Amino acid sequence: MRLVFIDETGDQEQKDYLGFCIATVDGRFYPLLKRKAHSILKAAGWDPAVEFKGHYLFSASKGCSTVPVDTRVEAAGRLLDLNSASQNSRMYFHYGRLSSANPAADYMRLVPPLLNRALSRAPTGAGKNLISVVCDERSDISRSALHAAIDTVVKKKGFVLLENVIVAHSTYDTIGLMFADLVAYLAARVDTIASDVELVHGLTPEQIQSNGKLRKLQSSRALIDRIKNLTLYTGT
User: Fold this and answer.
1) Which string of b and e fits 185-223 if b means at least 16 CB within 10 Å?
2) Model pTM?
3) Residue 208 has what pLDDT?
């Protein structure tokens, strides 16, 4: 069974920035991922009543406020390391980004072709073409329209969708959405901070180290580099 998780991200300063992350994983790896992810978060002291989000990563006051930023970043790195085994990648990530004046419309327009790229042809064999798709909830998109758009793609790839597309409220337990959210957030930070050329130009190494945005950029790049399979796309 193939599991698919879809989340999106934006940027507080670059209001027109819109990114989508699709995470895919073979269902046989999911139990291990969830158990180990919870073990990592527990070791970091993260409160199970609070979801672990990329948006909380570099802010000591957001999310679980008792966990310092350095511990959060370390935990994020350990989480991303779970996606690589010695021989095979456990989870694959596809990230698309664009400039958008209408996020809801662009979500519906671009998620299906990104999903089409993220999915290989369904495997043969009894039950092997079963797929489940989980999307983070959005109040501005019709669930029926989202289901229809995604179901069309999975059918073209030879998969059979498990019931309906699931629109889920993300929590500590929605591990698949957590990975999609974390990768989307990090990719967006690399995009948006690195695009500000004036921020970097002419700074000494000491100035870079003391600049909060640049430290965030360096940490985001280092975390992204730990992902074994991440494909980036730019939309229009």
Assistant:
1) bbbbbbbbbeeeeeeeeeeeeeeeeeeebbebbebbeeb
2) 0.91
3) 54
